[in-house]
Amino acid sequence: MDSTSPFTPKRSRIKRKTSGEINSVSRTLLFDDSHSRSPFNKNLEFSPLSQQAILPCENELIKPEQITPIKMEHSDFKKNNKILVSPSIKNRPNRFNIDEETKISIKSSSRKRNSSNNSTPSKKFKSIGSENCKPITYYFQPIQKITLPLTNKIDDYFKSATEQRSNEEKIKINIESTVKSEFLTNNVDFSKENHIKSPTTALSPHTQNRKKKNSKITDVKSQLSIEQVTKQLHFPSQVTPTKNGKINHIMNTPTKSPRIIDLLQNKVTITGGDTYSRFIKYIVLKAEIFFLCEDGIMTIIDSCTDDELKIFGRLIARKHGWIRADEPDGLKKYKELNLCHDFDSVLMSLATKQLINTDVYSCELDCLLNILKAHELKKLQKTFKINSASNKSQTKPEMIKSFMNLVNKQRTIRGNSSTNLKECIKKILGYCLKLSDSIRDDIMSCLIYESYPYFNGDEKDRFRDCFTKFSMVEKKELKFPTFNVKRVSINFNSKDSLEMYKNALNLRQEVQLSLEKKDHENAIKVLKVVFEKFKSAVHDKCIRDSFLELPTYLRKYSAVSVYAHVLFKNISILKKSTANKNLAKEVLEYLLKHKEFSMSKIPDLHIELAKVFESQFKQLNNAATVILDGLKDKTISELGHQMLSSRAMIYVNRKIRKLDDNLKEELLTFISNTKKQLPNTTINGKIISTTEKNSSGRKQVYSKKIKNGDVLYMSVEDLALSHYKSQGFSNGIHDEGQLIKSMFLLCFWDIIYDSYPSYILFISQYQDCPLDWRSRHFYNIREQRIKDRMAELKLMTVNQICDILKTGCDKYYETQSVINWKFMNDENLPICKIILECVGIEVFLAIGNQILKDGRVYMYGMPDLIVWDAINHRCMFVEVKGPNDKLSERQTSWLFKLMEFGANVEVCHVVGNGGKKKDNYENMD
């Protein structure tokens, strides 16, 4: 389900500045570095500084002396000596295997860094004109290779500001909302009060009658009284939703539905209210929602006032459940915020429209008991004379169980049915409400449809993530690339298809929540349901055919693809099934039988199935046969073939329970034997380890004692950088290829974010990359333009390429995209120039071309370090491996590719020695 670029910061890392940090020149968006890699540039000279020294902002070059000193006293050196930590440890001390005392010292010495990067305000988005709207069927065309001309002038790589503004006026990209069709016009009165523009058409007699009917409904609403529940708060009387949760008097079924092209040509301007109310309108008032969700939701939301949507939006953002009136985090909070003029009447109106449910009697007894607090349950136990089975205090679940047992054993409680218990609970709770289940379900369907092209995370975070983006874009704190959005439904041609996709996402979330609670039994039960639904979908000819008609890069936005992904991802859980030991094997065999639903995971499926045969069933020959079948599959990529070959070699070299000779010989004929050996070197490092609880899994810390007696704490990559400095490479970066990839992709910005009719590439203005990013379709669709651009870049000098990079930084800096702006910025352009001179333009272009051709394989896995000698114009890519660490197949593939391109590569193995006392150091100078 990964639809985002690998360089875009994770959504969970987006945070706002405090009011004191925001000014007219500084960024209004910060990215939390708690999960980031090491800072950009590390000069390999480690020198101590005064206690006042601090690290610069993340985009500044780190000078030799900018190592943070932390005073630590040890028995073997003087008190005036210090322990200095490298930036990688300082920024993320919890990742490293050091004691808590040192961590606290590191954190206390760190100062909060304010970003100094200027952000360019994002352009104000506008709606797409009708000229860009086409029927859905227009976009479903077979993929073809197209040739698009490219100007050979350097000045044409990036359009001028005037041309850019002109294109923006033509494209008019804005918050996507296209709902005002003739159907809705005939059923809802879009008044100025709701800030929505309706088409200027004469009202038909049917419409006039409809308006009169709606006015009568309003009169009835105004006559409703509000019941006073508490002394401080007044809330409406209880309302129980209808069975289907809809308002029958608001919605009429039209005799003839409009074409989607007609809906797309009408525009809606969303204004008024606060951010929550505008966001709700944004996700609901869309033309496609009319077809894909419950028809009534659009009309209901459109009939709500801004005050109603202010409250409703905040309720949607909460965890679904009952909300009490008198709780600090309950309704009392919203009343104190003064969000609306008359809070009580707003709640009454929401209840009347059945957007909220205020009838606690509609809740199941166990859920109702769960709303109460522990002390309230104890009080209720005394009322019903329920004695604890033991003298120990009961937990809340145990108390709830005692009430349920009482109800199940006795038909009556104190002379009445279980409703008596509910009545007592109601008195304790006071006024409560929760969102109507059906309405919330419809809203979440709308949200899934709006966000599926760009959201990548847990379902519980979907609303908050999408709302945050919407809010930050409105405030110009976040901006996205300018591209031509096609407002069409891609995979969802019916309500059922969207509903099936939503259910698949919910099942995936349920599995994840069970695993977080370590409830493997329930996770396996849900996975069995997923397996059955997957088999059912595969056997459905309509679902299968519609899936196979889609390009592979669009297939992930379908229920059947989600099912396949969930099953593969949780194979290790399925192996733990005690009720059915064959479950993991059955799932893997079925996934391989229908491999068109898991194209990118075919090598992994073969390997996992082989492991099941080998470990669970002790059938080595069957395991080898599975690997052999994978090696014979010509559709498997080069990297996949290497993965299978490595597994095959393990079986061929077995000393115990050997393979059959015929099978071994056949495997050897398919194994890719690489005679080349990767250059490697070995260095030693003193490990500072701790034996504290939960210290396993952390990165090792290495120490180095310098001449003045101070001790340096560093990561394994820092140690390697120090080694290569002694070899003449005066500078280096630990970025896993981020900078050089960002440099290359910035040269192709206009190609990446351009339109290529008749392909569907951008369907939401919140995408940071095209839908086909990291797929082979990406290169095929743009092949000729990429080749032309590559040919022109080859003829350029380093200075000319740097000019392109500077122009790109000036225009697009901090735009959410495939560029990592943490590394690629104006301040680092001198470093970019040096790297280009040392690496060479041909190697630089070969690396980028490989990424564009097969981004799924080569977007990741580049060597950890790039070190260079600016004086002699030499450079080396280094993969660092600590003790007990091995090269992955992807890393090996990248290293051989770099050698093929003519780059210098090396694998640096770090051997740890010494040990477990942190006062045991080695002078490595």
From TrEMBL:
Q: Say yes or no: keyword Hydrolase present.
A: yes
List, separated by semicolons, the cofactors it needs.
Answer: Mg(2+); Mn(2+)
What the protein does comes down to: Nuclease required for the repair of DNA interstrand cross-links (ICL). Acts as a 5'-3' exonuclease that anchors at a cut end of DNA and cleaves DNA successively at every third nucleotide, allowing to excise an ICL from one strand through flanking incisions.
Name of the featured protein:
Fanconi-associated nuclease
Q: Which family is annotated?
A: Belongs to the FAN1 family.
Keywords per UniProt? DNA damage, DNA repair, Hydrolase, Magnesium, Manganese, Metal-binding, Nuclease, Nucleus
Please state the protein's primary subcellular location.
nucleus
List the catalytic activities from the record: Hydrolytically removes 5'-nucleotides successively from the 3'-hydroxy termini of 3'-hydroxy-terminated oligonucleotides
Return the SMART domains for the record: VRR_NUC
Q: GO CC annotation: what is one?
A: nucleus
Q: What is its EC number?
A: 3.1.4.1
